[in-house]
Amino acid sequence: MSQTRTLSDIRHLLEQVQRVLIISHIMPDGDTLGSALGLAWALRARGIEARLSCADEVPPDFWFLPGVTDYAARTLTDEQAVLIVDSSDLERIGSIYGEAAFARVPVVNIDHHVTNLLYANINLVLPKASTAELILDLVTFLQVPLDLRIATCLLTGVVTDTRGFRTSNVTADTLRAAVRLVEAGASLSEISDAVFNHRSLDTLRLWGPALTNVQRRGGIVWSEISQDMLREAGVDISAAGGLVNFLSSFHEAQVAIVFRELEDGRVDVSMRAVPTLDVSQVALAFGGGGHPQAAGCTVVGALSDVRERIITALQEQWTVSPSDQQTTQRADGTNDRPA
User: Among 128, 129, 202, 325, which one is most buried in terms of CB atoms within 10 A?
Assistant: First the structure.
């Protein structure tokens, strides 16, 4: 189905409803938050009551976004449609999902991940650099004028998911979208400063031991964050946000991974890869998804077990490094054999 046809289907649906629930994915990042908020402000301009939902709390890095205090862990009540933003599958919205409730109303899936499972009644899914670009297309199609609030939210989505326009999927269309948002009043410098230049001391207390314990096996570089580490630092799981991008900047890292132990017996896995490698298929095989160079999944199991399963799957998919694949090297230079 063409993008224009899909946009028309969404517009037709929105013309028939008064209340919608817009859902961001768990462990929310700038793209899911900025995209959802930008869409909410646009729908409100059309007279639609837009409620925002996320199973997890919004990280402090994004408290500057206009309307962010409207977020709550809302489940579907009297809303007449659901719009899920930046989520490749329903598991990514966590406890917000309810099979019986969702079956009662139309569901719209707006996402840019190549591994998206096309799970909704209407699927606006295209491999752009950010979901915020798709929301901008929708806002334009709906003929809602861009104001400062919409532009700030959407530019935050573009900036964060492209790591400041540095990812390999940035295109001329991405840059043109950013120009439109800046022309509408969004401040690129203020957004970049807010999302990239500020870390709390508690976050640094978590990153310190995580970086000390960085390990390497061939071209795979990783760190692990346990529940004990989170408790000792006095932070929640969101404090690990951005760590995998930092690891990916290491010269030795063809693939960077952060394994985060969750409270429910699962492990969140975030992966980044150099442009010549694809980690999305491994993420998909473990029930996750993403992009070739940025993907993730949530896997049931102990931290050490999940780590070995993921690394083994990566090594089976392709040779990460022609040498030293079976050696694990710690940051202090000592070597261990894998478990």
Answer: 129
Per CATH, the homologous superfamily of domain 3-196 is inorganic pyrophosphatase (n-terminal core) (3.90.1640.10)
CATH number of 201-336: 3.10.310.30
Task: Say whether 328 sits in a helix, a strand or coil.
Answer: strand
Burial class (CB in 10 A: 0-12, 13-18, 19+), 212: exposed
Tokens in use for 95?
A: 């406890």
184-187-191-193 Cα dihedral, nearest 10 degrees: 170
Of the candidates 104, 121, 135, 106, the residue with the CA atom closest to the CA atom of residue 34 = 135
Q: What is the pTM of this model?
A: 0.84
Q: For 126-140, how does the pLDDT look when each residue is reduced to its tens digit (9 = 90+)? A: 999 999 999 999 999
pLDDT of 339 higher than 50? no
Q: Which helix (H) or strand (E) holds 210?
A: helix 201-212
Q: What residues contact 177, with CB distance under 8 A and at least 6 apart?
A: 132, 133, 136, 154, 158
From the CB of residue 143, how many other CB atoms can be counted at a distance below 10 Å? 9
